[in-house]
Fold this protein.
Amino acid sequence: MGLTAYNEIIMVSRVDDQEAILTLLQNMYATDRKAEFNFMNVYKELPVTSSGTIVEFKEKTVEFAMNATQFAAITLSNEVLIQSNTMNTNIIGKALEFDLRRHQITLGDFSYAEIHADKRVSVRVQLKMPINLQMVVDGAQLNGVIRDISLNGVRVTTFSGDILEKASSIELRIKLLHNGSGQLVETLIPSRLVRMEKSGVQSHCAMVFNHTALSEQVLSTFIYQRQLEIIKELRDKI
């Protein structure tokens, strides 16, 4: 995965867990040959999810069929998180064989997974390139660089972390390229610092937005366009 979205956990032992998972999958397949499983990978911080089905069982491995986008995401990470509405556990499957023509992947080395609690309520996307940012902090002009962004917040790298940490008022002046018109759109967003990590003289700051109607509209359009770009880029890797 492009992000660590889960932890691998051992319930009994790796061997025992793998055998238990294989038995679980075999029983589900025996009950319903068309049982659907949900796959998840993360590519450039964008969750890539889809459903798929079991094609056949091999010795200690299972072949799954899925759509082309998920196939591409798994080939890049060599593993996938597997879930099901009828399965009360989360599973990690390691990719062992790829059938590009049929978009089928043979998974093995199964293990259990604990999914990280995700507090984000909107999709966060990586940018093609970091975007320079102006910040109005208690009336003073400061600079930073946007690393990733969502409708609800942003991650910024800056040399002014100490000032931000003490600020009572923060506004981010963000300039975004609108792909439809090719115009550069500027929006000013009132924001709040929620977390900061220092690395030498730089600070990595997580901020949440207190949107105006205009800033929310501008940012929604940009994030939607960026999601489409990421998915296209992923499909082009096939």
Q: What stands out?
A: The radius of gyration is 22 Å. The chain has four helices and 13 strands. The chain has a mean pLDDT of 90.
